[in-house]
Design goal:
alpha+beta, BirA Bifunctional Protein, domain 2, single chain
Length: 228
């Protein structure tokens, strides 16, 4: 049980120091300190996973490495100045995922469909083209919007190929991403209630995941497309 694990101010202080000394020499000198903070944050992530497992089927938790891939980036600083992790749902019938990002002045949780493949994206758009009422009902539910606000994500300028730009639900059909983001202040992150608030946020999004899972595992007739 990891109910009481928290994020420490010293962890954020370390990340701030790393941001001001983002080089291999400094990092190597503070490697053991980094590992201590990494282990503490991992405990927090495991606590989130444990709580999520009480109301959802979670396949795995992945904590991302601190090392940046600088091969194709103009920014050649070698280390990230945040801790982050994702929580994957179990099986092909459960769609959607959870993400947690911790950094001084920029912490957030995110959830939804960040980069749906072209088949999933087309299926979502066809569902919205046929009838978006159930989708709007879910994303506009007061319990969801109170926590997450409005649906976010990149979108095409007019309409995807093959879709009518005058369609009354084109505001949804033109989206390429279907995500929700909730930001947290440092004070909120460092509070004793942060773990519960993260888990509550993820729990509130479940009706959205349930709907999208139903859409992405059926055809337009409502018949399952999963292998039997």
């Amino acid at each position: 049980m990891v109910d009481n694990v928290t994020i420490s101010k010293t962890t954020f202080d370390f990340l701030k120091d790393l941001g001001q000394n983002n080089n291999k020499d400094w990092f190597d000198q503070h490697k053991e300190v980094f590992k201590e903070h990494q282990n503490q944050v991992k405990l927090f992530f495991e606590g989130v996973k444990e709580h999520l497992g009480r109301h959802d089927d979670i396949e795995k938790m992945k904590m991302f490495r601190i090392y940046r891939d600088v091969r194709f980036s103009r920014d050649k600083t070698p280390y990230k100045t945040h801790f982050a992790g994702s929580f994957s749902r179990l099986g092909a019938h459960l769609r959607g995922g959870y993400y947690l990002h911790l950094t001084p002045g920029g912490s957030f949780v995110a959830t939804g469909f960040w980069q749906p493949n072209k088949e999933d994206l087309f299926r979502i758009r066809k569902e919205l083209e046929m009838d978006a009422s159930a989708f709007r009902s879910v994303i506009q539910h007061p319990a969801l919007t109170k926590v997450w606000g409005e649906l976010q994500g990149e979108e095409v300028k007019t309409a995807p190929k093959g879709f009518d730009k005058e369609h009354h639900d084109i505001d949804l059909i033109r989206k390429k991403q279907f995500i929700f983001v909730r930001n947290f202040s440092d004070k909120e992150v460092l509070s004793h209630s942060f773990l519960q608030e993260v888990v509550h946020s993820f729990k509130v999004i479940r009706p959205y995941f349930d709907l999208m899972s139903d859409i992405l595992t059926t055809n337009l007739n409502g018949e399952s497309v999963l292998d039997q």
